[in-house]
């Protein structure tokens, strides 16, 4: 036992007490989660522009109201920029009142809020042809125009109100031409504004007041609530339900935290074992400890380093949540389960990485063997959105009992705040524990033989034989 602890302490120090460790724990969150904030930072460097849009209105009824909408939008953007109050990160994204507010807050968080102004120019539709379209396209290429929109006259034509008419009938298409036509903000604004104007004008022509119709279309908000429980005083109340953004990003953040810890602990273990084998350091170490003690000590040191990472990132995350006002949304009662899942995941994947490293002599050979392992590790990350939406679905439940995906899958499910049956949590833990024990035992057999294997690279069938054959 003393030899195992000595090796574990040496591996822990080699993993934690280095400058590379400090650099890694700083850069890894930026690499994994920076995509959420970098667009917002870069958005601040972008200057607001006046984007000139030419309107070819064959209906002769939509240009003037569309121009008024654009002017009102420009004025609103100018006022919001001039009078924008200073807010904290929590104030900017909290307490949305409508679906439009929630969408606007989400776009602002991702750095996708609108800042450009639109200036409309009317182009006569009389005699408008392909030559005219080419001329406007050249103006776009020269920077004189940002886009041009061609509105056909038929968009305001009445359609049949017959109940047996096919429901798939659509109005004529409105053509939007620009250099970035696919995802441009101007295209989205024009589509929304024009459809509102067309709808209002068609209702007016049909003798229906748009104001009355809007009044009839007012909706009642459906607010999510938790299950009702009885407290100690006998009162009945419902649990508080998180807002959609918190329910979406909290599980993802915890899953990314677990994946980062696995990545930063398993990969160095792979490189360490390969280096010791290549430089024949293992042969010297085996003179003082056997293969079982050497592998056990390395795994324990790896677990200690991973828990250090988990604690550092977890503490920073809790401090950030406290500062932003999300403290009450952190599932503190499930943190012990997260630590257990993290520990068993590091033991399972760490032993697999060690077995693969002991079997090969070059990194490219290890990469080919690690491809199936990486595919299993990233499986929860590919379906995380579906799991967050339906934590108790058949897919989420089945994958929770598949040991390689159990840690991150159960982390996702627990962090959603959904009611996960206790028997599923216990059964997933037992399945993961059994899978970890089995994985460590098989990896130990491969490690014992492979660590001293020199010469040609073993075939996959030979590695499987090492795992099956009982060592003498």
What does this structure look like?
- There is one protein chain.
- This protein is an alpha/beta fold.
- It folds into two domains: about 1-35 and about 245-470, no CATH class; about 50-160 and about 170-210, no CATH class.
- It is about 60% helix and about 5% strand.
- The strands form two sheets. A four-stranded mixed sheet has the order 2-1-3-4, sandwiched between helices. A two-stranded antiparallel ribbon has the order 5-6.
- It is elongated and about 95 Å long.
Q: Any chance you could write out the topology, listing elements then pairs?
A:
Blueprint: H1 2-16, H2 19-33, H3 38-43, E1 50-57, H4 63-82, H5 89-93, H6 99-109, E2 117-123, H7 130-141, E3 147-151, E4 175-178, H8 185-205, H9 210-216, E5 228-230, E6 236-238, H10 244-278, H11 281-285, H12 291-324, H13 335-359, H14 363-377, H15 379-382, H16 384-389, H17 394-400, H18 406-415, H19 422-450, H20 460-468
Parallel strand pairs: 1-2, 1-3
Antiparallel strand pairs: 3-4, 5-6
Residue windows where pLDDT falls under 50 for at least 5 positions: 84-100
Which descriptor suits the 3D outline?
Answer: elongated
Give the total of domains.
Answer: 2
**Rounded to an integer, what's the Rg over CA atoms?**
31 Å
Helix fraction, binned, reads 55-70%
How many H/I helices? 20
Number of strands: 6
Beta fraction: 5-15%
Distance between the termini: 22 Å
Assembly form of the protein: single chain
């Amino acid at each position: 036992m003393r030899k195992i602890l000595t090796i574990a302490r040496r591996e822990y120090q080699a993993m934690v007490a280095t400058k590379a460790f400090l650099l890694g724990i700083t850069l890894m969150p930026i690499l994994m989660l920076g995509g959420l904030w970098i667009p917002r930072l870069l958005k601040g460097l972008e200057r607001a522009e006046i984007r000139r849009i030419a309107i070819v209105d064959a209906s002769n009824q939509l240009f003037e109201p569309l121009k008024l909408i654009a002017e009102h939008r420009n004025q609103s953007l100018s006022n919001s920029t001039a009078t924008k109050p200073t807010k904290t990160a929590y104030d900017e994204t909290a307490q949305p009142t409508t679906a439009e507010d929630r969408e606007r807050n989400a776009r602002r968080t991702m750095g996708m809020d609108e800042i450009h102004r639109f200036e409309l120019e009317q182009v006569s539709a009389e005699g408008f042809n392909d030559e005219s379209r080419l001329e406007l396209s050249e103006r776009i290429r020269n920077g004189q125009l940002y886009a041009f929109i061609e509105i056909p006259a038929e968009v305001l034509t009445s359609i049949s109100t017959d109940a047996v008419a096919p429901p798939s009938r659509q109005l004529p298409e409105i053509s939007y031409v620009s250099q970035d036509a696919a995802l441009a903000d101007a295209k989205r604004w024009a589509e929304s504004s024009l459809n509102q104007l067309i709808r209002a004008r068609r209702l007016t022509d049909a003798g229906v007041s748009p104001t009355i119709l809007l009044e009839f279309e007012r909706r009642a908000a459906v607010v999510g609530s938790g299950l009702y429980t009885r407290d100690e005083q006998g009162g009945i109340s419902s649990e508080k339900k998180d807002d959609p953004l918190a329910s979406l990003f909290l599980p993802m953040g915890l899953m990314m935290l677990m994946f980062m810890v696995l990545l930063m602990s398993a990969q160095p273990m792979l490189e360490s074992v390969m280096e010791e084998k290549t430089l024949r350091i293992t042969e010297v170490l085996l003179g003082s400890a056997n293969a079982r003690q050497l592998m056990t000590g390395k795994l324990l040191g790896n677990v200690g380093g991973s828990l250090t990472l988990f604690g550092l990132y977890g503490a920073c995350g809790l401090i950030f949540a406290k500062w932003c006002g999300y403290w009450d949304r952190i599932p503190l009662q499930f943190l012990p389960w997260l630590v257990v899942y993290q520990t068993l995941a590091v033991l399972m994947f760490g032993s697999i990485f060690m077995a693969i490293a002991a079997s090969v002599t070059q990194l490219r050979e290890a990469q080919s063997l690690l491809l199936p392992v990486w595919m299993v590790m990233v499986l929860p990350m590919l379906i995380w959105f579906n799991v967050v939406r339906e934590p108790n679905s058949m897919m989420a439940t089945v994958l929770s009992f598949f040991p390689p995906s159990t840690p991150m899958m159960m982390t996702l499910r627990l962090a959603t705040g959904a009611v996960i049956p206790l028997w599923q949590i216990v059964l997933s833990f037992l399945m993961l524990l059994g899978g970890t024990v089995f994985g460590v035992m098989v990896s130990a057999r491969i490690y014992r033989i492979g660590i001293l294997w020199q010469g040609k690279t073993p075939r996959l069938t030979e590695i499987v034989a090492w795992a099956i054959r009982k060592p003498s």
